[in-house]
Automatic annotation (TrEMBL):
It holds the Pfam family Methyltransf_31. PANTHER family: EEF1A LYSINE AND N-TERMINAL METHYLTRANSFERASE, SAM-DEPENDENT METHYLTRANSFERASE SUPERFAMILY PROTEIN. Belongs to the methyltransferase superfamily. GO terms for biological process: methylation. Residues 4-126 form the Methyltransferase domain. The keyword Methyltransferase applies. Residues 379-405 are annotated as: Disordered. InterPro entries: Lys/N-term_MeTrsfase_sf (IPR051419), Methyltranfer_dom (IPR025714), SAM-dependent_MTases_sf (IPR029063). Keywords: Methyltransferase, Multifunctional enzyme, Transferase. GO terms for molecular function: methyltransferase activity. It comes from Horornis vulcanius. Residues 389-399 have a biased composition (Basic residues). The keyword Transferase applies. This is eEF1A lysine and N-terminal methyltransferase.
């Protein structure tokens, strides 16, 4: 007898076989089921119109067909219905089902299983057939966006039968998402199950936010089809205060490259403010990843237009199926990665140049373990034409947007907390005197902008820097214009050990000690400094190396309220006089700690000293940025 083409197991009263027959896809179809009533009903429905299709009363766990009899075995939900639990008896039946399917299927034939892909169902099927040497591919064929018919996506397992090679452990496992034709190879059953679970979660999310507004901001990553790495990070931000009108239901905002760390784009409150000012009921912000290449705004729009509609708000008018794409200045910004490396202490890091607001460019150091935080930043000077060099004509070819800008602008402090730390130096000196000769210890080098500024603007200051990671000294020197000299020395050492040694051997030698040290432990609610730097025994050593009228300046970044209160209490135990300056829009708080209460000054005096210090630093021929406003920095200082 000639081999039949298709076997449908557990056919029930589904119209699938009839539809396949009627559209000419296949006529030689054998349907089996254990229900006598179902088989009689289906025979009557097709007897006169589908003569080549048959319905047989048969148990799929014990089929009467000979081996290698079918080219395709089709299962629409039968496996899902059978594998309702993972009890031994149920798993035994599933093994029987798979064994029978394997027996009646030809080599090169396919078992097609339509399923909702619950994790235990998918895992069982994939493990069984991959261990038999079959090629396993999972296709997503329908999602929650398909006429709202499904909440969960529908998948088809395509198991292709190959002869098992004795001793071979090789597995071919693939997933083919709905939005792409090319399958992606995965390494294990666990990865395949996880990939399917991601798509199920996404479908549930789309279903939920298409029906009700988001009370909290929703975040998700869209990954690159080839590499599987994140390509876009999306945040869904709803603004209940925006009154709906004809065209303000939904918009997409592309965050310029390199600016995703800014407060407006990188925090919940900032995005909420952005959405309200944009005037849309739902704003979808899109951050671009540094490892990816983008073909401008038009390319991004073409790539995302279909996907973003799955995240549209409830009640989106039919006419607004083309949503507006917004950005700052209408472009996607500029990001040029200058250097990538890793170190045992800091992990992977990058140095990149990004275009800021307007025409300024900035160089940034980013630790990839905390990629949304700028570790160090410096402004770049615009290239200066050489003597006799003519300006480029407008009709000439423009320079590449990634062409390296000029040198580092050492006069500019990009970080608000660095400006506050510098302002704190006005606490030094006598009642009527500003600091002259200074001995300053900075723990934490980063890109070196803080110690460089102190060195350059306090002409009599001698600056010692302690940095635990030699890679950071190399980065600061090569990429951020840092250099050592008679008044600037870097000590590659653990700050804890260095301060402890100084306390034992050379107490009371520094006018100012500044801590700007990040923590590598992301499980603690304090990212700056590491907890060991604010323990009482160590803080007492810091006090020991300060001169009696000196100041200890600490950059504190702590999101854990209880931990922060504990740190402040410890600081108050060690230092009788404690000021705090909170940085607006940031978690940073700058603490100014003095060894004795004699240095206490009221806000008016602090403001006057800060203005005097600023005047002293603003010397002719020396660049000065109006944003420093040292007096303003100290107006918001509070005594704890």
């Amino acid at each position: 007898r000639a081999a039949s083409q298709v076997l449908v197991v557990g056919c029930g009263n589904s119209e699938l076989s009839e539809q396949m027959y009627d559209v000419g896809m296949c006529e030689d179809i054998v349907n089996i089921d254990i229900s006598d009533a179902v088989i009689r009903q289906m025979r009557e429905r097709s007897a006169s119109t589908r003569p080549k299709m048959s319905y047989l009363l048969m148990d799929m766990l014990q089929m009467d067909f000979p081996e290698a009899h079918f080219q395709v075995v089709l299962d629409k939900g039968t496996l899902d219905a059978l594998l309702t639990n993972e009890e031994e008896a149920t798993l035994g039946k599933v093994d029987q089902m798979f064994a029978e399917i394997s027996r009646v299927l030809q080599v090169g034939g396919r078992y097609l299983c339509v399923s909702l892909a619950q994790a235990h169902v998918l895992k069982k099927a994939v493990e069984y057939f991959s261990q038999e040497g079959w090629v396993v591919r999972v296709h997503q064929v329908a999602s929650s966006g398909d006429k709202q018919q499904f909440v969960l996506p529908v998948f088809v397992y395509v198991m292709t039968k190959f002869r098992k090679i004795p001793g071979s452990a090789a597995q071919i496992l693939e997933i083919c998402p709905e939005e792409q034709d090319k399958p992606m190879r995965v390494e294990s059953t666990e990865q395949l199950v996880a990939a399917v679970k991601d798509r199920q979660h996404y479908a549930l999310l789309c279903s939920q936010i298409s029906k009700t507004p988001c009370r909290e901001q929703v975040s998700l990553d869209l990954c690159d089809k080839e590499s599987g790495k994140p390509r876009y990070t999306l945040h869904v931000v709803d603004s209940p205060s925006v009154k709906p009108s004809r065209d303000n239901h939904f918009a997409i905002f592309i965050i310029p490259q390199g600016r995703e760390t800014e407060w407006l784009f990188g925090t919940e409150e900032g995005r909420r403010q952005l959405a309200a000012s944009a005037g849309f009921g739902r704003l979808l912000t899109v951050a671009l990843h540094r490892e990816q290449h983008y073909e401008g705004m038009a390319g991004i729009q073409a790539e995302l237009s279909g996907k973003v509609m799955e995240l549209a708000p409830p009640g989106l008018p039919t006419r607004q199926q083309q949503v507006p794409f917004l950005s700052v200045g209408g472009d996607i910004g500029v990001r040029a990665v200058r250097h990538c490396d890793s170190s045992p202490l800091s992990g992977e890091f990058v140095v990149e140049d990004v275009k800021g607001d307007g025409t300024c460019y900035f160089r940034r150091l980013i630790f990839l373990q905390n990629r949304n935080v700028v570790q160090s930043e410096a402004r770049l000077l615009a290239p200066t034409p050489l003597p006799g060099q003519k300006k480029r004509r407008k009709d000439k070819k423009k320079s590449s947007p990634t062409e390296p800008p000029g040198a580092i602008d050492k006069s500019y402090l990009c970080c608000e907390h660095h400006k506050a730390m510098v302002a704190g130096l006005c606490l030094l000196g006598g009642p009527d005197a500003l600091p002259g000769e200074l001995a300053v210890l900075v723990v934490g080098l980063g890109g070196g902008s803080l110690p460089l500024f102190v060195h350059d603007y306090f002409s009599q200051a001698r600056v010692a820097v302690v940095e635990i990671d030699p890679s950071m000294l190399e980065v600061a020197t090569r990429w951020f214009g840092f250099s050592q000299g008679d008044r600037m020395q870097v000590h590659v050492s653990d700050g804890l050990d260095y301060v402890a040694k100084l306390a034992a051997e050379a107490p009371a030698q520094y006018d100012a000690v500044m801590f700007d040290v990040d923590s590598k432990d992301l499980t603690v609610g304090m990212s700056c400094p590491p907890p060991a730097f604010v323990e009482k025994p160590f803080l007492q050593k810091v006090k020991t190396i300060l001169k009696p009228e000196g100041v200890f300046v600490l950059n504190l970044v702590c999101r854990d309220a209880r931990l922060k209160e504990s740190v402040l209490a410890t600081l108050r135990d060690v230092f009788p006089l404690l000021y705090v300056r909170r940085i607006q829009g940031e978690v940073n708080e700058i603490l100014f700690c003095q060894p004795g209460p004699a240095g206490r000054r009221d806000p008016a005096e602090l403001g006057a000293r800060a203005r005097a210090l600023e005047g002293a630093l603003r010397q002719p021929g020396r660049p000065w940025d109006s944003s420093y406003a040292l007096a303003d920095m100290l107006q918001a200082v509070h005594i704890l």
